[in-house]
Amino acid sequence: MKAQSKLYFYFAISTILLVIIAVWSLNTGVYDFGGKSAFEILGKVVKGDPNLSLSDKYVIWEVRAARIIMAVLIGSMLAVSGTSLQGLFKNPLATGESIGLTSGATLLAAIAIVLGGHFKQYLPEMVQFSLVGISAFLGALFAMMLVYRISTSGGKTNVVMMLLSGVAITSIGFSITGFLIYISKDEQLRDLTFWNMGSLAAATWTKNIVLIIVLIISYLVLLPKGKALNAMMLGEKDAQHLGINVETLKKQIVIVTSLMIGTCVAFSGTIGFVGLIVPYILRLLFKSDYTFILPLSAVCGSILLLIADTFSRSIVAPSELPIGILTSLIGGPIFIAILIKFKKSLQ
């Protein structure tokens, strides 16, 4: 009970911090509301004030509020997916980027953007509407299955093989994506640049609804897995002795993380290192206790991405710096720090 109370306390503190950052983000921007605060305008939008100008309503609701919610949702899902993969593979370097999921999602999304016009008309209307999103999900799933097959032998997953196969798949994926960029038209080239650098500028409430549905489904599966992932840290055989169905756990995490990463890539492009940074920081505070790390990563991922997005649209205002550049700038040094720590542990 004491541990549970401690979790609730940290979760509440993190949530309060997230709300404070969301308030700051809502009030940050180059648009002038005529001396009024962003919250006054938001209040009028909620109340349906007929005297509110269409430009004020559009900026506060369709641009800033929608973008803040998307940052919260995508940041949360990327962090939880990274945490889940690290628990599954028992390695702090296992993230969607390092094992090829992001590359696979980006590749199939790129194929849908550049070549989709040649076969889209033969698909059902519902599939046509979400072709890029479906492609990104399938790309992440195929990449995860391929990495898992290559790195697993005799029921045991070799972490070094997993990371090396992830590097190989990432290399292949980005090379094919590079070829697609070469043959793409101007409009397709702009879309592909968006995928590769990452951005939340295309946020809409329709996309947020899809993200919320994916998040709810995914979290119902993943968030209760804290104890199971703690058992996995002891080894697969010990986890089985403790009553954990290891193969079912692996399949659930593989499919759900592929769903989350594929959906995030479909809507925001490639935003790297969120799944690496957040679990690393939480692991410094709570060691490798996934009953703490897993739920807290859901909130802390939102905090990280919301801060990064707010800076990305204000550092070079009125232009926008791609958010993937900022997260990579933060994540690169942390990745090196993890490698140095791992090297010292080997000695």
UniProtKB/TrEMBL annotation:
Any one GO molecular-function label of the UniProt entry: transmembrane transporter activity
UniProt KW keywords: Cell membrane, Membrane, Transmembrane, Transmembrane helix, Transport
Primary site of residence: membrane
Signal peptide from the UniProt entry: none
Membrane topology summary: Multi-pass membrane protein
Membrane spanning stretches: 7-26, 68-89, 101-120, 126-148, 160-183, 203-223, 253-278, 290-311, 323-342
GO BP annotations listed: siderophore-iron import into cell
A GO CC term attached to the entry: plasma membrane
Pfam families recorded: FecCD (PF01032)
Keyword Transmembrane appears in the UniProt entry: yes
Gene3D superfamilies in UniProt: ABC transporter involved in vitamin B12 uptake, BtuC (1.10.3470.10)
InterPro entries: ABC_BtuC-like (IPR037294), ABC_transptr_permease_BtuC (IPR000522)
Family: Belongs to the binding-protein-dependent transport system permease family. FecCD subfamily.
Full protein name: ABC-type Fe3+-siderophore transport system, permease component
Protein species of origin: Chryseobacterium populi
